[in-house]
Amino acid sequence: MYRIGISQGEIDEAKLRESGLSFTVVEPRQKILDSARSAVGKPYKRGASVLKDAPNCFECSSLVAWAAVESGYSIPRVSVDQFVFSKRINKEDLLPGDLVFANTEEIVHTEGAYYSQVLKKEVKEEPIRYETLEYMPGTKVPHGVDHVGIYMGNNKIIHGTSSKNAVVEEDLDTSASFQKIVGYGRIVEDDTLRFVIEIPDDRPDLRNKENLLKEVQK
Q1: Residue 4 pLDDT > 90
Q2: CATH number of the structural domain spanning residue 54
Q3: Coil, strand or helix: which one is 104?
């Protein structure tokens, strides 16, 4: 089921109820942590889809994108795009629910391509991306990004990793995947409640946030 997250300040709850659309109200920071914990032990799948594969299997960035959607935020799907999209923070400012980005320097998946639903075209596989793909395409990221995890507090990180073939929780300092951290990011800015709205399969037009708001508030 396709979901869209919207803040309480953007939409009238009474009109949302009148629209007949199914929705839940979530506390975003707690929800992203709960979602991450629920995924621990799920199998790793390269290129896992948020829409089709979650919550049964994940890769690193699909786990983050899925947990964000469950928490009322729509974010890019690819890790380098998530890096550019998220707000830069310092390590000492990390809060549970923030993101940790790395360049593992593992040169894999150097051949092949996949179809980008956002760009509507075939995209060449890259082991480590040095510029954004689907969000602000072409934005340079000189240090490269190929991995991301969700910080859980107490120096713990949850991430999907091919090395363990699963979603795991590890110590951030000793995790092999985060030996070369390139930055920290924040998606959840505060604890303001958010709506997570389910979009019916027969209304793909409502996957656009502006269309959804017009539909509900008309």
Answers
A1: yes
A2: 3.90.1720.10
A3: coil
Separation between Cα atoms, residue 119 and residue 129, nearest integer Å: 16
- The per-residue pLDDT for range 155-202, each reduced to its tens digit, is 999 999 999 999 999 999 999 999 999 999 999 988 899 999 999 999
Rounded-to-integer distance, Cα 209 and Cα 115, Å: 23
Q: How many CB atoms lie within 10 A of CB 37?
A: 14
pTM of structure: 0.93
Contact status, residue 61 vs residue 82, Cβ threshold 8 Å:
yes
Helix or strand (DSSP H, E) at 81: helix 79-85
Taken in order 183, 146, 77, 140, is the CA torsion positive or negative? positive
| H-helix or E-strand spanning residue 216 | helix 209-217
Query: How does DSSP assign 124-168, residue by residue?
Result: E--SSEEE-SSSSTT-EEEEEE-EEEEEEETTEEEEEETTTTEEE
CA quadruple 162, 32, 10, 20: dihedral positive or negative? positive
1 belongs to a structural domain:
no
Q: Report the number of distinct structural domains present in the chain.
A: 1
Residue with tokens 């199998």: 43
